What we know:
By secondary structure, the chain is α/β, with parallel strands linked by helices. The chain contains 9 helices and 14 strands. It has helices spanning 48-60, 71-74, 103-116, 120-130, 158-169, 191-202, 217-222, 233-237, 252-266, and strands spanning 3-7, 32-38, 41-47, 62-65, 86-89, 94-97, 100-101, 136-142, 146-151, 173-178, 181-186, 206-210, 225-228, 244-246. It has a 5-stranded parallel β-sheet, with helices on both faces. Strands 8-9-11-10 form a 4-stranded antiparallel β-sheet. The protein has a 3-stranded antiparallel β-sheet with strand order 5-6-7, covered by helices on one side. Strand 13, helix 8 (233-237) and strand 14 form a beta-alpha-beta unit.
Amino acid sequence: MPVLVASDLDRTLIYSSAALALTMPDARAPRLLCVEVHESRPLSFMTETAAALLADLGDAAVFVPTTTRTRKQYQRINLPGPPPKYAICANGGHLLVDGVTDADWHARVQARLADECAPLDEVREHLLRTADPLWVRKHRVAEDLFAYLVVERELLPEDWVKELAVWAENRGWTVSLQGRKIYAVPKPLTKSAAMREVARRTGAELTLAAGDSLLDADLLLAADKAWRPGHGELADEGFAAPTLTALPERGVLAGERILREFLKGTRGI
């Protein structure tokens, strides 16, 4: 039976220059491979060693990139190895099969959101009304599924995020702060549901996962084995589970370690 590997991307497998955490002397820093270019500028990286490991993983398992990114944002990424047959975008709102949205899956997601959550327009209006232009740089809606803000983190009042989380909880939404972005996401919009669908289609009996943020928590809990890096929301909260391994590595070297663990898990080591 195939092994399914569902992994978050940003700050799990790929890293912006600000998130690399290269704390070693410059002469000992790992060689990096650029895996994303945006507006003619390099944006995301992994180590060359991690790139080779990912190529090996793509041959050994059903590797499923699993991201909160929109489809357009995901399609900017050029990962090493064979092109994944499946990819999960928009936090589970879109399941791509050979790069194309599965319309039936998307319709099922939309129906569940309509039944169980406050509408996106209500959440977006609340964000526009309560977020201070002093520290908000951008208001965005992703795939007509969820909303997020790009903020100046050093100016962001901590209490505002907590108050937003309470307000959202009562309406069937969840809030996640990741770097300079504050996400408001409907609770039923999950990576884990999409992962289970891919496992059903592929017949995978073993699922492995990794992620760093609160939006990855359901994915990690749903997998048979999971890993989180030493940075991110989950590390800050001390997130733990019986099937989860908390790794000490931080930054781009954590991505390398996660891929080693995926390969070990795939080979039954």
